[in-house]
Amino acid sequence: xxxxxxxxxxxxxxxxxxxxxxxxxxxxxxxxxxxxxxxxxxxxxxxxxxxxxxxxxxxxxxxxxxxxxxxxxxxxxxxxxxxxxxxxxxxxxxxxxxxxxxxxxxxxxxxxxxxxxxxxxxxxxxxxxxxxxxxxxxxxxxxxxxxxxxxxxxxxxxxxxxxxxxxxxxxxxxxxxxxxxxxxxxxxxxxxxxxxxxxxxxxxxxxxxxxxxxxxxxxxxxxxxxxxxxxxxxxxxxxxxxxxxxxxxxxxxxxxxxxxxxxxxxxxxxxxxxxxxxxxxxxxxxxxxx
Length: 290
Description:
Layout: E1 9-12, E2 61-65, H1 71-81, E3 86-90, E4 95-97, E5 106-108, H2 115-125, H3 127-132, H4 135-143, E6 181-184, H5 187-200, E7 207-213, H6 219-247, H7 258-277, E8 283-289
Parallel strand pairs: 2-3, 2-6, 6-7
Antiparallel strand pairs: 1-8, 4-5, 7-8
């Protein structure tokens, strides 16, 4: 039986006494905001070095968090700097950023609001507050990566991403509007992605791996999570490249072919190996369809 038709779900548990996590990335000390950076108050290792861009095969990635602001954007930037084709999204109903109190978040609509627009507005409201809690620094990074936050549920999968998106970091390679792997940063975002793809009804009949890595929504954990996601991307890409070299590239462009099937079968094993290197970041996996 084709393992991709079984729609399995792999849940890997954190060991009771994990070894110490990898050394944290040096980060500027920041005052914690009154709430999370992605979707405030919304109810809804070993291979981590950047590979050289040798023009070889690269898997296409998508990173997802609640508001497409902190965790998904940190991993988007890391993957782009490593020459991976990558896009990113949020799954919330609105963009939510910390405000003066936990009950007063700054709220913006997806798809039409730019990072520069949010930066200008918050700078004019209270530059001292938003600089102290790291929001302005985060937005400065984000606006250098792409235009603005996008919502996963509004993404027209398979529609070419041209014009407005061509200046986004990591846009080369994802112009066709499809990816091979979706990585979410919170379980509720993983649930939202899986449910949304089921609702779409798989019009392209193209497989996509959906992986969740639980990352706490603060600046420091986003840095560590971005490093872990890059490590996983390197492992997945090395496996995919190996299988394509053994089996040929027939069917690669539409997510089919013997090489792709062999890669799909090995993903749970790769994720289990990765989990041993990052035991403090619990992971989920399933296979979905575009």
